[in-house]
Amino acid sequence: MTPSDAGKTPAQRSRLRRRRTIAAAVVLAVGGAVGVAACGHGGGSDKAAAATSAPARTSAAPSASPSAPGAPAGPSGAASTPAATQSRVDADVAKQASDVKINITPRTGSTGADINRGTKVFVTDGTLTSVTMTVKPTGQKVAGTISADRTSWSPDVKLARGTQYQISAAATDTHGRSTTANSVFATVSTAGSFIGYFTPEDGSTVGVGMPVSINFDKPIASQDRAAVQKAVTVSSSSGQQVVGHWFGSSRLDLRPQNYWLAGSHVSLTLKLDGVEGAPGVHGVQDRTVSFDVGRSQVSTVDTQTHEMTVVRDGKVIGTIPISSGTTPQFTTYNGQMVISEKDQSTRMNSATVGLKDKDGKSEYDIPDVPHAMRLSTSGTFIHGNYWAAPSVFGHANTSHGCIGMADVKGGKDPNTPAAWFYNHSMVGDVVVVKNSPDKTIAPDNGLNGWNMSWSDWLAGSALR
């Protein structure tokens, strides 16, 4: 039963099932730039993009959506091949994209940003309509000014050292078409100190798959990792043992052997003040933060049956038709993936994952992909798709690697499968993909350390 079937009579559900068996047509996806997203890894190595604690505002290629009451009509008519139809639909949707391009400096995920003149937003082929900058941990706004010609913005004040900031910008082109961009970055700490930026945020409520992930703004020397890890403790009201694992020299993730128990209260203590992280470089943090684990939700995507089953607290609450990555070029990774970011709408541009036409332009550029939830750093998303034929969902894999669900343009209809899943999901929920011809996603590509055995996880601890 899909979420939209709930409450309907058997006869009504039977009619809906017949409607869902329409012959599959096709199609698909998108990608992005700074503050943009792009779907798919194109067969490239996911090791190339290790996850950071700061959510990257880029997306993966959109997939098709499930057929259900309220699903969009979408382009009709089957092409000779899914690829042919996909290209045509991508081209049609790209025509709707805004000409304006937003550039934010520093780029999302950056650390060590200049506190004086290193922050700026500027646009080409359009004008800025709004820019909001906040201190990420507190939400405190940072004053700034848009230039007289509305093509640039900069903060009015000197930024604080060792602080994480977030910028959200919106702009329109001469035809009134709009787009948005985002960046999350951190400023430089002093030369002799290091800071760890952590997720999840203090006071947040997250899903059972959410690890504690700490990204240090300076590399931690191998001989000092044990001391640094010892100064970082995570405890849970569930009593679960929590162990850290190093992904390189700048990232330490901590998790229990199995998912957090629903309803747990978790505390993270950083006793890094004075701890040496490298010769002449010492920590400056001494604080405790906490978060709560909500209900348990694990959704399983079967790329062969083109269906996602949503299980909450051990009970199936929804079954959603989906479209995943096209075989063989743009298959979707297998494995356990954690939702690390949720956006009501995001721009997806294929150039951000290296997908370009012969003329060097993006294969697709969709300015308003609705209900987008990030599953990997390299560009895997689960999201709404309003441009694909409804017959795709539940029947064909047509995306550039993302998982798509039926939606409407603007994402304003709460009755679509994509809206239902978005509204029933939170950061930290788990999405498991199975039966794809692709490999299992790398544990450091996003917050996806669950794809590593417990023995391998323990082997990555500096406190063995």
Kindly describe this structure.
The protein has 464 residues and is mainly beta. The protein contains five helices and 29 strands. A hairpin with a 2-residue loop joins strand 18 and strand 19. Residues 2-8, 10-35 and 42-81 have low confidence and may be disordered.
Short description:
The protein has 5 helices and 29 strands. The chain has 464 residues and is mostly beta strands.
> Using only CA atoms, what is the Rg?
22 Å
Relative helix content: under 10%
- Low-pLDDT stretches are 2-8, 10-35, 42-81
The biggest beta sheet reads:
5 strands, mixed
Task: Count up the helices.
Answer: 5
N→C terminal distance: 47 Å
Oligomeric form of this entry? single chain
Give me the secondary-structure category.
mainly beta
| Gross morphology | globular
Strand content: 25-35%
Strand segment tally: 29
Average pLDDT figure: 82
Give me the side-by-side strand order of the main sheet.
1-25-26-27-28
Keywords:
5 helices; mainly beta; disordered N terminus; five-stranded mixed β-sheet; 9% helix; 464 residues; 33% strand
What is the element layout, followed by pairings?
Layout: H1 10-19, E1 36-37, H2 82-94, E2 101-105, E3 120-124, E4 127-135, E5 141-142, E6 144-146, E7 152-155, E8 164-172, E9 178-186, E10 193-194, E11 196-199, E12 205-206, E13 212-216, H3 225-230, E14 232-236, E15 243-246, E16 251-255, E17 265-271, E18 276-278, E19 281-283, E20 286-293, E21 297-302, E22 307-312, E23 315-321, E24 335-338, E25 341-349, E26 365-374, E27 381-385, E28 403-406, H4 417-423, E29 430-434, H5 454-459
Parallel strand pairs: 1-25, 10-19, 12-20, 21-29, 27-28
Antiparallel strand pairs: 2-3, 3-7, 4-5, 4-8, 6-7, 8-9, 11-13, 13-16, 14-17, 15-16, 17-20, 18-19, 21-22, 22-23, 24-29, 25-26, 26-27
